[in-house]
Write a structure and sequence with these properties.
By secondary structure, this protein is an alpha/beta fold. It folds into two domains: 2-105 and 221-274, D-Maltodextrin-Binding Protein, domain 2, CATH 3.40.190; 109-220, D-Maltodextrin-Binding Protein, domain 2, CATH 3.40.190. The protein is 41% helix and 21% strand. It is built from eleven helices and twelve strands. The strands form two sheets. Strands 2-1-3-11-4-12 form a six-stranded mixed sheet, with helices on both faces. The chain is globular. The protein starts with a helix and ends in a 5-residue tail after the last helix.
């Protein structure tokens, strides 16, 4: 009888965990463009999630990549759309658990590139020493870290080998810095291994006349994560949110909310191990997380 009672209490406790809902949830984003433009889209997305989950939803737009990791560490953010590198960082520092990853143009990976204006005399990495360069953020996977490794392999320092270094804050601003002549080279994401398309084509209606002089190996696509202690306390909410994202991105409507917000075709299930290539890059650059 005692064993049955213990089992019953345990079952009730388990059901209560699954039934419990938080008072609100906060979703963090790393915007590809200006934060004020992105926030309006983020709020629209939050309203959709709130309607689906029946829980108030807030949006957190960080001032930089590191701020989002810190916000999750401080439990100010429950879910986040990280970059590959910020996830690796957040997994260690903020107890982040990966749930999904983005699929973009049929691929669950993307590339880093170094880009110049179409009419630039710069043809390869051998030509860029002493030039001005724009990066995105020191924690940006494609906008700084992968290019840094390529530059070091060429005997160049990612910062001291250039006449001017800019950290623009987002990929769209890096494209504009290149277009406006504030930088002669810019690091940003590319969508294909040939470097035919990327931030310079995807973030602007008409695209920009630019070309890639270097493209990286494939990088695991950006993940959607949850704070692990939140997941353990509210697994039902995490699962509902996760499958809601999968469902809306699997719909026939090509202009679904994730497409409008993050330019993502769909999302798929992800594991931490899929980000081992990024961890290898971290080791090669001697980055301490």
């Amino acid at each position: 009888m005692r064993n049955i009672l213990i089992l019953l209490i345990s079952s009730i406790f388990s059901l209560n965990i699954w039934a419990a809902k938080p008072e609100q949830i906060t979703i963090g984003f790393i915007p590809a463009g200006p934060s004020n433009e992105f926030k309006a889209k983020g709020l629209e997305f939050a309203e959709l999630v709130q309607k689906e989950l029946g829980i108030p939803v807030k949006v957190f737009i960080p001032k930089n990549y590191e701020s989002l990791v810190q916000a999750m560490k401080d439990k100010k953010v429950d879910f986040a759309f990280f970059t590959a590198m910020t996830f690796v960082h957040a997994e260690k520092e903020a107890n982040a658990k990966v749930l999904l990853r983005k699929v973009w143009e049929g691929r669950d990976y993307y590339f880093s590139s170094l880009v110049v204006p179409q009419n630039s005399e710069i043809k390869s990495l051998k030509d860029i020493k002493g030039k001005s360069i724009a990066y995105v953020d020191k924690d940006s996977t494609s906008g700084f870290l992968y290019p840094s490794l390529a530059l070091k392999d060429q005997g160049l320092d990612p910062q001291s080998s250039f006449s001017k270094v800019i950290f623009s804050g987002n990929h769209k601003k890096s494209v504009l810095d290149l277009e406006d002549g504030k930088a002669e080279v810019a690091a940003m994401f590319a969508a294909d291994k040939e470097g035919k398309t990327g931030a310079w084509t995807h973030l602007f209606d008409k695209g920009k006349q630019m070309r890639a002089i270097w493209v990286s190996k494939p990088i695991p696509s950006d993940p959607f994560c949850v704070r692990n202690d939140f997941y353990e306390k509210h697994p039902n909410v995490a699962h509902d949110f996760m499958f809601f994202l999968k469902d809306i991105s699997s719909a026939k409507n090509s202009n679904h909310p994730l497409k409008k917000l993050l330019d993502v075709d769909k999302v798929k299930l992800a594991t931490s191990k899929q980000y081992d290539p990024v961890r290898e890059m971290v080791k090669k650059l001697n980055i301490k997380l």
